[in-house]
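STRUCTURE:
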């Protein structure tokens, strides 16, 4: 064991020495991470002590030279300021909470989501934010009923224009169904169903969202009957019963280009 406070010497299976740093605060034992050097582990402990016991630093004052991971910086700040320790980089506000993806990107959530994100770490890959849930990568937009294929500005929008504000009142779903977009004609809503085969094809235009969603499903079935093997997602329309669905399905008019689509001959 090292002599420095909060630092513990240990070894990997291959015998390589490394150092662990930890701190105890409000009867909570908190690991600060593992370090190759004793001095690095000691710096992490000193920084943690300065945060929780001395009240130094503010959450936006992080610097890499402090020797502590940014996620841990946030969790310690929240413990000090709000009296609650989370494993994930969450900082509580009065009526919502912040989730720090990194120093520059922070997301806002309603307190209703606190338990979920306290136990599910948000990861960023490309432009997508997701969590690991039951062994699967789950897009955080799915909690709002937004599908993976949805496009911001077309299928949903952030009411206040802030794409980092995931509070429920700030997310408006415009087009909940695959292949369906909403527009206006002479002041009245109209729903266009499209399908992507070898390019986009218009299936038709309809007066209700459900009609367009069902017409899309019908187009998928017709294309499969013509030998298209593409795995098209289909729409689930929960607001209507089976009898109404069948009536709308049978009466849905599908464009001739989709009905008579021919698979291009291979050269």
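SEQUENCE:
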């Amino acid at each position: 064991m090292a002599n420095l406070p909060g630092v513990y010497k240990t070894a990997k299976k291959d015998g390589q020495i490394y150092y662990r740093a930890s701190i105890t605060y409000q009867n909570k034992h908190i690991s600060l991470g593992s370090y190759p050097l004793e001095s690095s582990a000691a710096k992490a402990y000193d920084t943690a002590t300065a945060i929780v016991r001395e009240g130094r630093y503010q959450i936006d004052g992080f610097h890499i030279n402090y020797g502590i991971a940014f996620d841990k910086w946030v969790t310690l700040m929240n413990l000090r300021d709000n009296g609650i320790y989370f494993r994930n980089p969450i900082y509580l506000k009065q009526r919502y909470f912040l989730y720090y993806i990194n120093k520059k990107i922070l997301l806002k959530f309603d307190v209703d989501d606190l338990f979920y994100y306290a136990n599910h770490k948000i990861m960023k890959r490309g432009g997508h934010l997701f969590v690991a849930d039951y062994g699967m990568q789950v897009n955080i937009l799915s909690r709002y009923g937004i599908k993976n294929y949805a496009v911001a500005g077309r299928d949903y929008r952030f009411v206040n224009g802030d794409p980092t504000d995931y509070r429920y009142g700030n997310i408006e779903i415009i087009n909940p169904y695959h292949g369906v977009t909403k527009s206006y004609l002479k002041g009245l809503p109209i729903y266009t169903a499209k399908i992507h085969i070898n390019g986009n094809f218009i299936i038709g235009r309809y007066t209700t969202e459900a009609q367009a969603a069902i017409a899309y499903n019908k187009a998928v079935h017709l294309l499969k009957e013509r030998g298209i093997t593409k795995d098209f997602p289909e729409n689930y329309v929960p607001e209507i019963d089976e009898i109404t669905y069948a009536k709308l399905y049978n009466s849905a008019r599908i464009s001739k280009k989709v009905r008579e689509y021919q698979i291009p001959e291979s050269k």
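REMARK: Residues 209-225 form the longest helix (17 residues).
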